[in-house]
Every structure is written in C-alpha cells, then in structure tokens.
Design a protein that fits this description.
The complex is a heterodimer of chains A (about 200) and B (about 200). Helix content of chain A is about 40%, strand content about 15%. Chain A starts with 6 loop residues before the first helix and ends in a 16-residue tail after the last strand. Chain A has two domains: about 5-75, no CATH class; about 85-185, no CATH class. Chain A has helices spanning about 5-10, 20-30, 40-55, 60-75, 120-135, 145-160, 175-185, and strands at about 85, 95-105, 105-115, 140-145, 165-170, 185-190. With about 200 residues, chain A is α/β, with parallel strands linked by helices. Chain B folds into two domains: about 5-70; about 75-200, no CATH class. In chain B, helix 2 runs antiparallel to helix 3. Chain B is an alpha/beta fold and about 200 residues long. Helix content of chain B is about 35%, strand content about 20%. Chain B is globular, with a radius of gyration of 16 Å.
Chain lengths: ~200, ~200
C-alpha cells in the first residue's frame, strides 16, 4: 500500500486540512520529496513539464499556485530557509509578497509569476513600496516566460523599473545563481520591530 | 475660453484619440452640459459606437475627464505622468498643489484587482508628498460601489475617494478639486521613458 504524501502540510505550505488542487497536482508530479535534483532550475523545469499534461491550457490560478509551490519546494530542497510564503509585511499596506527571505542586510522578496504581461508593473510598484520601508531590500521576479523576462530585464537595466533587482527565468541557470547567492548569505528570521522606538516616559 | 476652443489650443491634440474624439464631438470643450457628470455621460453616449475595444473605452473616458478639467478651469495639470519618488506608476491626471501636496487621479472603465495597485501607489504618494490625495474615477457602477466599500472598511485606506464617472459623485469631486490651488511643478513630474506624459496644461 502506498502512503499519500503529506510534505506540504509538514512544511506548513498547506493551509487547510486537505491540499488545494495545485497541491494535489504537486503530489502527483513529486510524490517523494526526497527525489534528487542537481540544481534548482532542474527541479523547476522537470516538475513544470510533468505538470503540463495535467494542467492543460487553462486554470490560470492553479498554474500560478503550483508554480509558487514548486519554487517553495526548490527553496526547501536547496536549503534556503527560513523563508516566508505569501507574506504581508508590516508598514507596507495591501501587499502580499509571494516569498520573503530575511538576511542581515534586509529582506529579499521573490515574486513568482508564470507569465508577466501587465503584472510586472504591479511587481515593480511592490518593489518600490518595499524599498521605501527597507532601503537595502532586493526584489526579484521569477517567471517561466523567457521573452517577457528578457523585455522586463531590459527595462530594469535601463532604469525604467528601478526598484526591481532582476527578472529571473526560473527554469534556467539564472535561478541557480540566485539560489547560490542567497546560500552564501546568512538567512535569519524576520525581525519584530517595536513601533515605539524610544520614549522618555510611558505615562499611563 | 472662446466658443471655438479646440484640444490643440491646449496642446491636448497630442493625446491618443483626441482628434478622433474631437471629430465626433467638434465643440467638446464648449458644448453645453448641465453638470460635469452629464457631460461625461454625453461623451460616453456619443462614443458608444467607437468604444468596442477596451483600450478605446479607457482612452475616451480619460479624454472626457481632460476636456472636463479644461471646461471647469481646473489646472495646470499633467496627463499620463508619474511622480518623482514613486517610480513605475503612472496616474492619468496629476495636479501639484501650491502647498507641496499632489492630487493624483486615475480613470478606469473597469478596475478588477487594479485597486490594489492604486491603493499602494496612493500610499507611496502620501508618504512622499504629505497631504496628497488620490481619487479613482470608474465607469463601472458596481466596481465603483465595491471600491467605495473597501475605502470605508479601510481595505483601500489610502485612496481618498472613488466616484462613478456619470454620477453626481463626480460633480462633488469637481467641486472639491476646484477648492485647491494648483501650480506647475515640472521638477516632480516623471513623463516616462518615451516621454508619453503631457503637461503642464494651462487653462487660459
């Protein structure tokens, strides 16, 4: 008898009692989380291509969530922990960042988007908001859309998307390099900040 | 303003679709209307046949608002511009105040999830320019009501108000906009990478 995988729950990547549709698909394409992959980009490319026949053409929201879960698994398997998934950061309103990794020099935010189109503007504005609060923050967009990634990176280089650090093709060596860079810095838990920094007295 | 005033008199003929709209409504800057909202409703009605594509609908709504600002002598204003300090975001209308604050207006036929981007941009604007205001004009009645609810519940707390383009709420907004004194302030205006933005538009 085979035992159904539960690693999403064990990793706290699953909210409810049962996995979402995207989670179910991930379990189908990666039944054993111990499966070995040489590089993060190989993991993304293999899992995404295994998912393609199940996903078909439509189901955009499931595709988006599945892509996020695959990135999460890549971060776990390549030791980039702790990371925060679907995060609201204090002092930045109405923004859900897909992944936040906290380093000694500030937050590194990763947005996972299967395709970019107009969403690059939203990611860019979210990066601006992040920089307003955390001046030394980095913001990356991970995508599978190679053409739009190239276009967006040209805008980043030209300074048209100034707060974005880079747009990274998740199934190429670019993602491996990002993971390698993040692996070389100390990853810490996100700090909790007192909103009253200092006062002469607290008069009650 | 003379009864023969044209978009070209204000340099507005450079806006996409302006000459086409003026050919449909030749005296758009001077034609009689009972109120600002009835003027926008008239523009919408007269461009109905042209408004098959989403881009054209949005363009005509913005041109209607631009014409309204000229008719109501609200200005100087900038069209399709960003504001220094909040890179990557473009507002449809920007009016720098004498006080240093900025009023930014976004016009949309429909909003969907874009209210989140508008709210984040409004937060950035308030952060960079104290006492700034952000208004959203929407044509879709249901979406205008939805955003108003989100403003009331503080989910879109940084947007000052949302008005439906053909309702009396727009008349109130025009009264509010007329209560401020605006100035030319090119130093804070970002006309975008291809210099798409226009202004300052002076009302003579």
């Amino acid at each position: 008898m085979t035992v159904a995988p539960t690693y999403l729950k064990d990793l706290e990547l699953q909210n409810g009692l049962v996995p979402t549709q995207a989670g179910e698909i991930l379990y189908q394409v990666l039944p054993d989380i111990e499966e070995a992959f040489a590089q993060p980009s190989e993991l993304v490319a293999k899992l995404w291509s295994r998912s393609a026949p199940i996903l078909g053409g439509g189901q955009n929201s499931i595709r988006g969530e599945l892509f996020e879960l695959i990135i999460a698994i890549a971060l776990v398997k390549f030791g980039l922990r702790p990371f925060y998934y679907q995060v609201k950061l204090a002092l930045i309103p109405e923004t859900d960042y897909d992944f936040v990794i906290w380093t000694r020099s500030g937050p590194v935010v990763i947005s996972a988007k299967t395709s970019l189109r107009e969403r690059i503007k939203q990611a860019a504005l979210e990066a601006v908001a992040l920089k307003m609060v955390h001046r030394r923050a980095s913001s990356y967009v991970l995508t599978l859309d190679h053409i739009e990634a190239e276009n967006a990176n040209r805008k980043v280089m030209a300074g048209d998307l100034p707060a974005l650090t880079a747009v990274i093709k998740a199934d190429t060596f670019e993602f491996d390099e990002l993971c390698q860079c993040l692996g070389q810095v100390e990853i810490i838990e996100g700090p909790t900040v007192a909103l009253v920094a200092k006062s002469r007295a607290a008069v009650k | 303003m003379t009864s023969k005033a044209k978009f070209a008199d204000f340099d507005l003929h450079r806006l996409p679709g302006a000459l086409k709209l003026e050919s449909l409504i030749p005296n758009i800057l001077t034609v009689h209307a009972n109120s600002p909202s009835s003027f926008i409703a008239d523009v919408w009605e007269k461009t109905k046949a042209e408004n098959s594509a989403a881009g054209t609908r949005g363009q005509n709504l913005l041109l209607g608002l631009v014409a309204l600002f000229v008719r109501e002598s609200i200005g100087p204003f900038y069209v399709s511009c960003g504001v220094r300090g909040i890179p990557t975001h473009t507002w449809d209308l920007v009016l720098p105040h004498e006080s240093g604050a900025v009023t930014a207006i976004s016009s949309n036929v429909t909003l969907k999830e874009r209210w989140k981007v508008e709210n984040l941009a409004a937060w950035g604007l308030k952060r960079e320019y104290e006492l700034s205001k952000t208004f959203v004009v929407v044509h879709n009645k249901q979406e205008a009501a939805n955003l108003r609810r989100l403003i009331e519940t503080n989910d879109a707390a940084y947007i000052d108000s949302c008005v439906q383009a053909c309702s009396t709420d727009l008349d109130q907004l025009i009264i509010e906009l007329k209560s401020f004194r605006y100035i030319e302030r090119n130093s804070i205006i970002d006309r975008g990478p291809r210099d798409k933005g226009l202004g300052p538009i002076y009302i003579r």
